């Protein structure tokens, strides 16, 4: 039998504790070297990209100028101050607070389509820095600035006068039953349609005669639609019912009416029950009752007659065309030296 002394307990040596101070020092040196390398690399790239950054900042200012120029042009169109083209000297030119030049011009492509150009330059002698090019689909507004209002084309009015189709309404008049023709309501005069089917155009003097001046607030001509009345356009001026850009068009709550064509007035105050199939354009106050149907209204751009010239232009849709890039331009861009590392 073995005793305790014959089988002594084995004691293992303890591992030596490492000194962490050396590792901390090495880590700090590596981190310092990494930060120094990153700083030097960033500084080198920042110096190399300085010219590019300057160009980007300049381009950003020019792009913002074209956007501001387009917003200004859109407001001018709504206010009857539509810019023209550079060829006629009617373009809109604005100097920015930093001395830049913004040039806006509009070209009529067709009846309801306009081409808009906005160009930003460092000064009037410099090359173009930024350009905005768009096609805008418009509808008439009825601006109240001076004698620029929505009305019939001068050539259309002349044809009507030459044909002797114009009836002048010089005193308050009520029409009932059936009536037809071109009725020109003079200033301060009221024409009432009471249970009347009218075929043709009702216009103010200013709406037909381009040489006249618009009526003022106290002298506005007035059209009252009462009872069961209907306004139909005729073949002389298709699609047009009322052209009173300086007048007032009203109906009362008991009226029932149907308007077939385009209507423009300084004030449109329509109540009762009825249907307005053509475009309604108001220069000032517009109040259209809830029981008046307007087929097609609010479903895209309404069509409007070619015999109408808009005094103000409201942009409904706009398209920014994409310029095609040629193979030569792509090659030039790919081979351009931006001053970076080889």
Topology:
Elements: H1 21-48, H2 50-78, E1 92-95, E2 101-110, E3 113-121, E4 128-141, E5 151-152, H3 154-162, E6 166-169, E7 173-185, E8 190-204, H4 205-208, E9 222-226, E10 228-232, E11 240-251, E12 256-259, E13 262-270, E14 273-276, E15 280-282, E16 286-288, E17 292-293, E18 308-309, E19 312-319, H5 327-335
Parallel strand pairs: 6-7, 7-8, 8-9, 8-10, 8-11, 9-11, 10-12, 11-13, 12-14, 13-15, 13-16, 14-17
Antiparallel strand pairs: 1-2, 2-3, 3-4, 4-19, 5-18
Structure report:
This protein is an alpha/beta fold and 342 residues long. The radius of gyration is 37 Å and the shape is elongated. It is 23% helix and 37% strand. It starts with 20 loop residues before the first helix and ends in a 7-residue tail after the last helix. It has helices at 21-48, 50-78, 154-162, 205-208, 327-335; strands spanning 92-95, 101-110, 113-121, 128-141, 151-152, 166-169, 173-185, 190-204, 222-226, 228-232, 240-251, 256-259, 262-270, 273-276, 280-282, 286-288, 292-293, 308-309, 312-319. The strands form three sheets. Strands 6, 7, 8, 9, 10, 11, 12, 13, 14, 15, 16 and 17 form a twelve-stranded parallel β-sheet that branches. The longest helix has 29 residues, at 50-78. It has two domains: 23-138, no CATH class; 151-317. The protein has five helices and 19 strands. Residues 45-56 have low confidence and may be disordered.
């Amino acid at each position: 039998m073995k005793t305790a002394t014959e089988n002594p307990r084995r004691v293992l040596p303890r591992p030596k504790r490492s000194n962490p101070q050396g590792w901390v020092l090495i880590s700090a040196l590596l981190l310092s070297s990494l930060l120094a390398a990153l700083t030097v690399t960033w500084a080198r790239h920042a110096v190399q990209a300085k010219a590019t950054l300057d160009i980007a900042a300049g381009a950003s200012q020019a792009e913002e100028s074209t956007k501001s120029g387009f917003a200004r042009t859109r407001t001018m169109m709504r206010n009857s101050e539509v810019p023209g083209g550079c060829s006629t000297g009617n373009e809109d030119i604005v100097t920015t607070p930093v001395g830049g030049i913004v040039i806006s011009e509009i070209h009529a492509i067709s009846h309801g389509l306009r081409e808009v150009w906005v160009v930003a330059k460092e000064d009037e002698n410099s090359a173009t820095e930024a350009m905005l090019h768009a096609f805008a689909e418009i509808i008439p507004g009825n601006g109240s600035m001076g004698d620029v209002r929505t009305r019939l084309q001068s050539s259309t009015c002349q044809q009507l006068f030459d044909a002797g189709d114009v009836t002048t309404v010089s005193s308050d008049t009520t029409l009932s039953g059936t009536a037809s023709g071109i009725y020109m309501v003079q200033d301060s005069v009221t024409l009432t349609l009471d249970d009347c089917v009218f075929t043709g155009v009702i216009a103010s003097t200013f709406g037909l005669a381009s040489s006249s001046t618009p009526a003022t607030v106290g002298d506005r001509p007035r059209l009252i639609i009462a009872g069961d009345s209907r306004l139909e356009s005729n073949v002389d001026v298709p699609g047009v019912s009322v052209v009173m850009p300086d007048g007032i068009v009203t109906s009362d709550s008991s009226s029932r009416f149907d308007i077939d064509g385009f209507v423009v007035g300084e004030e449109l105050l329509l109540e009762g029950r009825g249907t307005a199939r053509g475009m309604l354009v108001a220069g000032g106050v517009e109040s259209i009752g809830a029981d008046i149907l307007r087929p097609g209204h609010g479903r895209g751009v309404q069509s409007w007659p070619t015999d109408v010239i808009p005094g103000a232009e409201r942009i409904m849709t706009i398209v920014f065309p994409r310029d095609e890039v040629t193979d030569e331009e792509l090659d030039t861009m790919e081979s351009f030296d931006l001053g970076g590392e080889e």
